[in-house]
Amino acid sequence: MAEANMDQSKPQPPRMIDVPAQVTAIEPVRPVRIEEPRATGGPPIHPLAAVLLLLVDNLWNLADWMIIDWIVSIPLSFVMVFVPAVFIQRLLMKDRWLRALGFAALLGVVAAVPTSLTGTPVGLAILAWTGINRLIGKPLAK
């Protein structure tokens, strides 16, 4: 009886079952569109967003002198740069939403400062960095 218990406690190899292989047709599946991240190393902000910053920053120069209008001009300056810059960064620079929102918020905050001492130099620096040729349509040299 002790020998019978020993035989049962030994691990037994699995039983193999011979089943013929079946051939099934594979249906093509639409490929999933994966967004290609844009190449790194280039300027992070599109020149059009920088021009927008320059225009809005200088558009509200009158608000520099009328402090009472700041309650309207500061939020309006932010919105006028933020909203278009999100779509410029998303569609033209092919940034992801969070990155586009981040750069647009940064540009909007710079535009909302109620003097031209911040937005104009920042906008000109971005334009110099990205190159005005890219805005005109000439490709950047690699």
Entry keywords:
mainly alpha, 142 residues, 56% helix, 6 helices
Description:
It is a single chain. The protein is mostly helical and 142 residues long. It has a domain at 47-131. The protein is built from 6 helices and no strands. The chain has helices at residues 2-9, 47-59, 70-92, 97-112, 116-130, 132-136. It starts with a helix and ends in a 6-residue tail after the last helix.
Q: Name the structural class.
A: mainly alpha
Query: H/E order of the elements?
Result: HHHHHH
Average pLDDT rating: 76
Proportion of β residues? under 5%
Largest sheet: none
Radius of gyration: 31 Å
Overall body shape: elongated
Give the topology.
Layout: H1 2-9, H2 47-59, H3 70-92, H4 97-112, H5 116-130, H6 132-136
Helix pairs in contact: 2-3, 2-4, 2-5, 3-4, 4-5
Compact overview of the structure:
This protein is mainly alpha-helical and about 140 residues long.
